[in-house]
C-alpha cells in the first residue's frame, strides 16, 4: 500500500510516540496514549494500524528491512580479491543505520529489550556471517566445529558489540567500529597468534 506524504509523516510520528512512551516507562500502551503523544487522530491511527501491537510490529519490520539492506553483500568476492577499503563496507552501513535509528535501538535493544527486534537482528546478522563465509571462500579456514556454531558465535558477538557501542554513546566512529569487527572476525583479538 502506497502512503501519501501526510500518512508517511503520521506513521513517523506514531513510531516516535511509541518509542517515547516506552522510554517514559509505559508498559501497556493504549491507542489513545500513542495518538495523544503523536498528536494524531484515532481515525488516522486506524488507517495505518489496527492496534498498538501492529504498530510495534510494523515499526520493527521497517527497521529490520533497512538493516538487512545495509548488510546485503552486493558484490561478492573471495577474500583474496577484496581490497582493504571494501572489507568493512557493509558493516559501516550497519553502524550508520544503528546510529541513524539510535532512539529505536536504544529503546528496543537496551532500555526495554524487545525479543522480536533482537531476534530479527540476530537472524540478519547470522545471514550476513553465513554469506560472508560463503562468498569470501573462507570455509576451508574455519576451525573444525559445527559451522552453525561459528555463525551463531559471530552474530552474537556482533550484536553485543552494538550494545557496547550504544552504551558508550557511540564514541567510536562507525568506520572504526566496522574495521575493528572485521579485524576481530578475521584474526581474533590477539596482536599475534597465540603459541
Task: Describe the 3D structure.
The protein has 195 residues and is mainly alpha-helical. The mean pLDDT is 89. It folds into two domains: 1-50, Arc Repressor Mutant, subunit A; 58-187, Tetracycline Repressor, domain 2. The chain has helices at 5-23, 31-38, 42-48, 52-70, 89-100, 102-111, 115-136, 147-167, 174-187.
Strand content: under 5%
Q: How do the helices and strands follow one another from N- to C-terminus?
A: HHHHHHHHH
Helical content, roughly?
55-70%
- What CATH architecture of the largest domain do you see? Orthogonal Bundle
List its traits.
single chain, 195 residues, mainly alpha, Tetracycline Repressor, domain 2, 2 domains, elongated
SSE blueprint:
Blueprint: H1 5-23, H2 31-38, H3 42-48, H4 52-70, H5 89-100, H6 102-111, H7 115-136, H8 147-167, H9 174-187
Helix pairs in contact: 1-2, 1-6, 4-7, 5-9, 7-8
Short description:
With 195 residues, the protein is an all-alpha fold. The protein has two domains: 1-50, Arc Repressor Mutant, subunit A (Orthogonal Bundle), CATH 1.10.10; 58-187, Orthogonal Bundle (Tetracycline Repressor, domain 2), CATH 1.10.357. It has nine helices and no strands.
Amino acid at each position: 500500500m502506497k502512503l501519501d506524504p501526510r500518512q508517511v509523516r503520521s506513521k513517523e510520528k506514531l513510531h516516535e510516540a511509541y518509542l517515547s512512551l516506552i522510554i517514559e516507562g509505559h508498559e501497556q500502551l493504549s491507542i489513545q496514549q500513542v495518538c495523544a503523544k503523536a498528536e494524531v487522530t484515532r481515525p488516522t491511527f486506524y488507517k495505518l494500524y489496527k492496534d498498538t501491537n501492529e504498530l510495534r510490529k510494523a515499526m520493527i519490520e521497517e527497521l529490520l528491512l533497512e538493516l538487512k539492506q545495509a548488510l546485503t553483500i552486493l558484490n561478492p568476492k573471495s577474500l583474496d580479491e577484496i581490497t582493504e577499503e571494501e572489507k568493512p563496507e557493509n558493516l559501516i552501513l550497519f553502524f550508520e543505520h544503528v546510529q541513524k535509528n539510535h532512539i529505536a535501538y536504544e529503546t528496543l535493544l537496551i532500555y526495554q529489550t524487545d525479543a522480536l527486534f533482537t531476534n530479527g537482528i540476530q537472524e540478519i546478522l547470522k545471514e550476513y556471517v553465513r554469506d560472508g563465509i560463503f562468498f569470501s571462500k573462507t570455509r576451508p579456514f574455519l576451525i573444525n566445529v559445527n559451522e552453525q556454531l561459528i555463525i551463531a558465535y559471530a552474530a552474537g558477538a556482533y550484536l553485543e558489540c552494538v550494545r557496547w557501542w550504544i552504551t558508550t554513546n557511540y564514541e567510536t566512529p562507525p568506520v572504526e567500529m566496522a574495521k575493528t569487527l572485521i579485524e576481530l572476525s578475521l584474526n581474533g583479538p590477539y596482536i599475534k597468534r597465540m603459541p
